[in-house]
């Protein structure tokens, strides 16, 4: 195989960056304006056995030890205050009859716009449709709001969205601010670099290298850890950016040497762009959950009921069908024997 020279590789990266930038502009134009509360918006159209926290663990989870952040409320199809609020929400005197979901539009295979139709599609988007169908009987009863990584929690706290389904990791810091469903996917942090990079993973080969992360991401928290983060490795943590895609563009332009991000996202990017690659193994184990307002217990239980059904059916389950459709091709090298994580409950 002929090896590219430095100039050719830089040209390839620049071309890829231009493509990504153009895609970002196009999708930004296509996104409807974010609604204020009560405002108008356009609508778009082999599970493992559950586990229960040991006695006393719910109390422990509220303390600094936080041993089981992924433990959620048991599923229920009952309609409490949150479900009733969502169903009865009115706009200009008329019922909206739609779920409002915070999602991404730039994460390939997870939440992104189909170039042919302009519609939001992906693994996370399919899950949003399943939640909408359970609540309203219509999978397209959804208003999507695209939100940056750094605004996910604020959007829930301010009531701008009912749920956030956006490759959001469940962790001890976040459960102080929002509630989570049971986990629907397991991923981990990994290093994305240029194809000709000498970096081999999350290790000392990052010494003196510029590393990019998204603001408010798990990757940023990992780099900030004193014993294992950027300072320990001798890496240079550059100013975090609003979205992970911004890091990819900076990597393609040669402005940074590495990106730390979820391998679930990076696998799709590496599949799209031959000028970048994943290196090393994932150095964290993380679980994605649907985030909701901390006060919306009945909505949490309802989403967990949706996930209970979503996992059922083994190879024919809705979860596995979505995995095969969106993730299997690009994620096969980063995930062996895919299956939905076992739900963990605290009550």
Description:
It is a single chain. With 347 residues, this protein is of the alpha/beta class. 33% of the residues lie in helices and 17% in strands. The chain is built from 12 helices and 19 strands. Strands 8-4-9-18-10 form a 5-stranded mixed beta sheet. The chain has a 5-stranded mixed beta sheet with strand order 14-13-15-12-16. The longest helix has 25 residues, at 6-30. It is globular. Mean pLDDT is 84; it is low at 1-47 and 53-63.
Q: How many β strands by DSSP?
A: 19
User: Which regions have little confidence, pLDDT < 50, spanning 5+ residues?
Assistant: 1-47, 53-63
Order of neighbouring strands in the sheet with most strands:
8-4-9-18-10
- Gyration radius (Cα, Å) is 20 Å
Count of alpha and pi helical runs = 12
Give me the secondary-structure topology:
Blueprint: H1 6-30, E1 51-52, H2 57-61, H3 81-88, E2 90-91, E3 94-95, E4 99-103, E5 106-107, E6 111-113, E7 120-121, H4 123-136, E8 142-146, H5 152-157, E9 163-164, E10 178-180, E11 185-187, E12 189-194, E13 210-212, H6 218-223, H7 230-233, E14 236-237, H8 244-252, E15 258-262, H9 263-272, E16 276-279, E17 286-288, E18 291-293, H10 297-311, H11 318-326, H12 328-331, E19 344-345
Parallel strand pairs: 1-19, 4-8, 4-9, 13-14, 13-15
Antiparallel strand pairs: 2-3, 5-6, 6-7, 9-18, 10-18, 11-17, 12-15, 12-16
